[in-house]
Amino acid sequence: MTSSHPRPTSIRIFLADGTPEGLRIVEKSNWTGRAVVANRSQLEGAMKRSEMAQPGVYVLTGQTEEGAAKLYVGEADSLGDRIKQHVSGKEFWTRAIAFTSTNEGLNKANVRYLESRLLSMAKTANQWAVDNTAYPSAPPLNEADRADAEWFLAEMLVIFPLLGIDAFEAASSQAAASSSEPVEPPLTLYLNERGAEGTGREVADGFVVLKGSLARVEETLSIHDYMREQRQLLQARGVLAPQNGKLIFTQDFRFSSPSTAAGVLVGGSANGRLAWKDADGKTLKAIQDERLSDV
Question: Which of 54, 173, 214, 220 is the 20 to 30 A CA-CA neighbour of 97?
């Protein structure tokens, strides 16, 4: 199990070619791991780095045809050689993140274990579409090696969100604690509009709709294509399922904003800051304004 208790740390992102969106090298204090981050168009420069000749685990990220976030997880004895194979083999991805060790501490069993764990976490979280068709079981490791691999994984999971990747964290884990008020119970918000009945919570990078929320089946004539595609995709992945003339959320699911969450529930455009309210009827907008007024 990875640690659920965040702690202060330092992360260094080196811009290898001097531009924010260029080739990046990510390191973390007191960690032997290193990440090489490169867009598809920058692979030539990335392949020249020594890290790419080492064993490791990698993630390819991009979008589905509908515009939803999508990823592929893999492992390799030589990261560069394996990722080059995906240039012609996979079309969806636009960025590669390769993790290796600076002290040659990762062997074949380690990287296969990390690949298996990441795939399992992405499948359980069900936040991103996953391009992998196979989900290999983790190889047997002795107790010490498994502990080391889990420690390496925990550090990777700190870095992923900094790169805009939240595929490995279940929405329920974020909804269980409020990032804005860590000493108070999370504030549950409610939506009751146009036949939709939802419960949700603010999280650091979006808004989580809780399991059991009911979305409207019907969609407004003015619904944006993006919102329609979101609803279709969630139904295809089983996040939304038919129930008594409604669509029920079968799991907690994280959206990029309260308005997107509200729009999926009501089947059309919605101002989430006004649609989501606490038990007393106070809107999310009023709650957020009050927080700022106390600062």
Answer: 173
In this prediction, residue 182 carries a pLDDT of: 47
Tell me the whole-structure pTM to 2 decimals. Answer: 0.79
First to last CA, the chain: 37
Same domain? 160 vs 270: no
Which residue range is the domain that position 126 belongs to? 11-168
Q: What tokens does 255 get?
A: 């959206």
160 with 177, same domain: the answer is: no
Report, in angstroms and rounded to the nearest whole number, the Rg of the chain calculated over CA atoms.
21
Which of 249, 99, 105 minimizes the C-alpha distance to 171? 249
Q: Is residue 36 domain-shared with residue 146, that is, in the same domain?
A: yes
- Given 122, 137, 168, the domain boundary residue is 168
Strand partners, 39: 95
| Both tokens assigned to 96 | 């590669």
Taking only the tens place, the pLDDT of each residue in 231-266 is 999 999 999 999 999 999 999 999 989 999 999 999
